[in-house]
TrEMBL record, chain A:
Residues 23-202 form the Spore germination protein N-terminal domain. This is Ger(X)C family germination protein. Its main location: membrane. One of its GO terms (biological process) is spore germination.
UniProtKB/TrEMBL annotation, chain B:
One of its GO terms (cellular component) is membrane. Belongs to the GerABKA family. The keyword Kinase does not apply. This is Spore germination protein. It comes from Caldanaerobacter subterraneus. PANTHER family: LEUCINE ZIPPER PROTEIN 4, SPORE GERMINATION PROTEIN. It comes from the Bacteria. One of its GO terms (biological process) is spore germination. Keywords: Membrane, Transmembrane, Transmembrane helix. The chain crosses the membrane at residues 311-333, 403-422, 434-463.
Length: 384, 532
């Protein structure tokens, strides 16, 4: 009896000796990568991977208030050329005093060449999918130039580029001109539609970055860019708009006046009908918002119903035109269903999907997409 | 074989020691007592000659310091020597039964009993009684004359409340039982007194409500008390450790308190209380984990604030148990689980610190325990100085010297404060001790270790019992009505029944008068309807 207990205790202690501690790295020995840039080398054969992480020592001085600060770099960026992303992340350790840790990575930026090359892009996606450290809330972005160019720069506003990008995403609903989609949504879309996705676009400025518009990926390859208007139309159609402004012109006495319509709420209703063998997809948008500034001859003119009605009508047609721009792009030009129509039919009209699902890619360009927009001005602002 | 041998040996040892019967000769008796109490210079023998011609020999034996001098002088010696002469009984009448006459007619002390065993007589003398021995009679009169210097009633120091009674138990058991008796004027409040300790003969009182208590629990308590064979009991802690179910456990299975109101309330719930002489700490049992988180004040204040405080205390226990461990696990294994900004801050503050997080935490926790221990041992004014030196100077200096990170100091401070928020000191000790185990587990396994530790502690708690009642009671065998007094303290209106886990014969605690009124009204109406 006693022997057995002793043996048991010994076994339990063996657990402590044999396991444990193996993946223990103290927090100060880690480099918290905030942003990753992935480019292709000039010959398109090797990857250039750039890791950016904040200089934590400098951060401590700043928070402590005692140190001089300023002279030291607020963040580091290191690049490595390697055959695969994984080997890049390993080989970079020969040059760093800390272990790279991707758990807090906020953004991954792809250079244009990566998304232009189908096999390369698929390789990159696979390595991201397999990374156990990466959060699924990472933001993926595509830049028309090189990702390295964005990450090697230090921006005055926020030297920590990853946090900078994340903070921009936080207030996407002020404009709705870039899609607020993260890694989770993008990979889901890529895997479900066999290589189609919309990825936000980032452009390097002189002393800041700008996120606007998006890249369209078709069949794991860059198919084109969407500009602000188109992008907003796309977002209206997919129900991503949570805010943003639509500017309309209203004729006044002498010159026409520009009036901003600030979207505050969008209700989207959808329906599918089949008429004469043709599928008709209807989207009805109820847009609510406020008019925040305007200059008319007389104060108080806004209160009159006609002008409000006029603004509502103008807004509706503006939104409609944006939506149709996006529809044209996807349906006529790219012939890719990225508006979620196939998904919608599959879920809500399964019998119809049984018929059309097989060759939806061929049917999609032929269907009719109808967009109805009704706008409501809820508030007309203040007089002083 | 060995086990059986042990058992039988024990039984043999249990043989009752027979006392020495007293003899009719005063001299013989006195000699025996004097022989036994040899070299005890605080024993006082007073020979008396009583009667008109001083023909009767008596002796009074007591211990100086333990007796009430005024009582012995006025009501024993004075009565025997002077008052007895005023009566004029014929000597012939008395001669045969002097003992009876004196016992019934002369001694004006209140509490008197007789023994005819010299050893018992000595025991009584040693506990502060006065023995009156007669020549010609084997009967010895024991006059209760206990009266020694005692501490007056003062507020309970370990369990202060803002609202509630300010009296705490003292070191004298009689005063303590009186304090409980004053709160429950019910003939069903029983106070059973036994003596434990083969040399100290310490008085131990078992208190219970005859018609409320679960007899099984009571029998268990009495049996375990009787099985204690030890030379001395100096504090109720001895009894607690000797009667509890599992002495391997870090958790107290008996609640100790210095508050008479808490004891009284527990008795009404159907629990048993044990008062011990020479200590202000009473024991309450059976005890569950939930009762360790109850404070007397919970019931005196309004239920909302009491409930909030209850929740807070349970959270405090969790913090006291796991805070440093979580810090270690997060910083060393799972930096991905902390918010990004906090991660960078922690990494920044730990920059240049020479110790791994585990040793950092261990150093600070050990320092804290050291300071606490030093503060307890020192007299109050110096204790405060220690607090300032330790808390402010060492904490600040350690951070500035770069040995520990500022966040660690915060974690230690929060842990310390949290551990003091648990009302029961002995429960707090358990959590404080286990904290170090959790730190080690966290250092080795990270969060898995903490979970493993929690599972282990929980398993232990689930198995643990206090006098037959599961330690995690209202949670493990669900009684909905009992849950009203655990994580929250429901309004008093919901406490209509005594705790079900205690299995009390008398279940009803309170009758809601309003409900009763409605019922009686309805009955009245029904009666009237019937008449119609």
């Amino acid at each position: 009896m006693k022997r057995k207990t002793l043996l048991f205790i010994l076994l339990i202690f063996l657990i402590f000796v044999l396991t444990g501690c193996w993946d223990k790295i103290e927090i100060e020995d880690r480099a918290f990568v905030m942003a990753i840039g992935i480019d292709l080398s000039n010959s398109n054969k090797k990857y250039v991977v750039t890791f950016q992480f904040p200089n934590v020592a400098q951060l401590a001085k700043g928070s402590g208030g005692g140190g001089s600060g300023g002279s030291e770099k607020p963040s580091f960026a290191v690049s490595e050329v390697a055959d695969t992303i994984f080997s890049a992340s390993r080989h970079i350790s020969t040059r760093l005093d800390k272990a790279l840790y991707l758990g807090h990575t906020q953004a991954i930026i792809f250079g244009k060449e990566v998304v232009e090359n189908k096999t390369r892009f698929q390789e990159v996606l696979d390595s991201l999918d397999r990374s156990y450290e990466l959060s699924r809330k990472v933001y993926l972005l595509v830049t028309p130039g090189k990702a390295q160019d964005i990450l090697l720069k230090k921006y005055d506003l926020e030297p920590n580029t990853g946090a900078y990008i994340r903070d921009i995403f936080k207030h996407y609903n002020l404009t709705s001109i870039f899609p607020s989609v993260d890694y989770n949504k993008i990979t889901k879309s890529l895997h479900e539609t066999n290589g189609n996705a919309i990825i936000p676009r980032i452009v390097a400025g002189k002393n800041e970055v700008k996120i606007a518009g998006s890249a369209i990926i078709k069949d794991y390859k860059l198919a084109g860019w969407m500009e602000d208007d188109e992008n907003m139309g796309y977002m209206f159609l997919t129900g991503l708009v949570k805010g943003g402004d639509v500017t309309v012109s209203v004729p006044a006495d002498e010159e026409e006046v520009k009036v901003p319509f600030n979207v505050s709420n969008v209700i989207r209703r959808r329906g599918v009908k089949v008429e004469n063998g043709k599928i008709i997809y209807r989207v009805k948008l109820d847009v609510e918002g406020d008019v925040t500034e305007y200059t008319f001859e007389k104060h108080g003119e806004m209160i009159k119903g006609d002008i409000v009605n006029l603004i509502e009508r103008e807004t509706s047609s503006k939104i409609k035109s944006m939506a149709y721009k996006a529809v044209n792009r996807f349906q006529k030009e790219l012939k890719v269903d990225m508006l979620g129509i196939g998904d919608y039919i599959e879920k809500f009209y399964p019998s119809l999907w049984d018929e059309v699902g097989k060759d939806w890619d061929k049917i999609f360009p032929e269907i009719e997409i109808k967009v109805d927009v009704t706008s409501h001005v809820r508030r007309i602002g203040l007089f002083r | 074989m060995g086990i059986f041998d042990k058992f039988f040996k024990k039984k043999d040892r249990k043989k009752e020691e027979k006392g020495r019967p007293s003899s009719p000769s005063l001299k013989e008796n006195l000699n025996y007592i004097k022989e036994k109490l040899k070299d005890c210079d605080d024993v006082i023998y007073r020979d008396l000659w009583v009667g008109e011609n001083q023909e009767f020999n008596l002796a009074v034996v007591f211990i100086d310091g333990l007796i009430d001098k005024a009582l012995v002088n006025d009501h024993v010696i004075h009565s025997l020597l002077l008052d007895s002469r005023q009566a004029d009984p014929s000597i012939e009448k008395i001669k045969g039964n002097l003992y009876k006459v004196i016992k019934k007619g002369t001694i004006s002390g209140g509490d008197i009993k007789e023994v005819n065993d010299l050893d018992k007589c000595i025991l009584s003398i040693l506990s502060g009684d006065t023995a009156l021995l007669f020549d010609g009679s084997p009967d010895i009169v024991i006059i209760s004359s206990k009266g020694w210097e005692k501490r007056s009633i003062s507020p309970p120091e370990a369990e202060t409340v803002i609202r509630g009674a300010r009296d705490g138990f003292t070191e004298t058991i009689r005063v303590n039982t009186a304090m409980v008796r004053r709160r429950i004027r019910d003939p069903n409040l029983k106070i059973k007194q036994i003596q434990i300790g083969e040399r100290t003969h310490t008085d131990v009182a078992v208190l219970y409500m005859e018609d409320i208590v679960d007899k099984n629990v009571l029998n268990k308590v009495m049996e375990r008390l009787k099985n204690i064979k030890i030379d001395g009991i100096f504090e109720s802690g001895y009894i607690e450790q000797l009667i509890e179910e599992d002495w391997h456990s870090p958790f107290p299975q008996v609640l100790s308190t210095e508050r008479p109101d808490k004891v009284a309330a527990s008795l009404l719930e159907g629990r048993v209380a044990i008062l011990t002489d020479n200590t202000p700490f009473a024991l309450i049992l059976p005890t569950t984990l939930a009762t360790l988180f109850q404070s007397a004040e919970d019931y005196y204040e309004r239920w909302m604030i009491s409930s909030l405080l209850r929740v807070l205390r349970f959270l405090a226990a969790l913090v006291a148990l796991t805070a440093p461990a979580v810090y270690i696990a997060f910083t060393a294994y799972h930096p991905g689980l902390i918010p990004t900004k906090l991660t960078l801050y922690v990494a920044a503050t730990r920059q240049g610190i020479p110790f791994p997080a585990f040793f950092e935490a261990l150093i600070m926790e050990a320092t804290f325990e050291l300071l606490r221990e030093a503060g307890v041992r020192l007299p109050a004014p110096i204790g405060q100085t220690i607090g300032i030196v330790g808390g402010l100077i060492i904490g600040q200096a350690a951070v500035q010297a770069g040995i520990v990170s500022p966040l660690m100091v915060i974690v230690v401070a929060v842990t310390a404060v949290a551990s003091f928020a648990i009302p029961s000191y002995s429960a707090a000790i358990a959590f404080r001790m286990l904290r170090f185990v959790f730190m080690i587990l966290a250092a080795i396994f990270g969060l898995y270790g903490i979970m493993l530790g929690l599972i282990m502690v929980l398993t232990h708690l689930v198995v643990l019992k206090s006098f037959g009642v599961p330690y995690l009671s209202p949670f493990v065998e669900i009684h909905l009505s009992d849950l009203a007094d655990t994580l929250i303290r429901a309004p008093l209106m919901y406490f209509k029944e005594r705790p079900e886990i205690l299995n009390t014969p008398d279940k009803r605690k309170m009758v809601d008068l309003r409900e009763e009124k409605i019922e009686s009204l309805e009955e009245d109406r029904r009666g009237r309807d019937d008449k119609k």
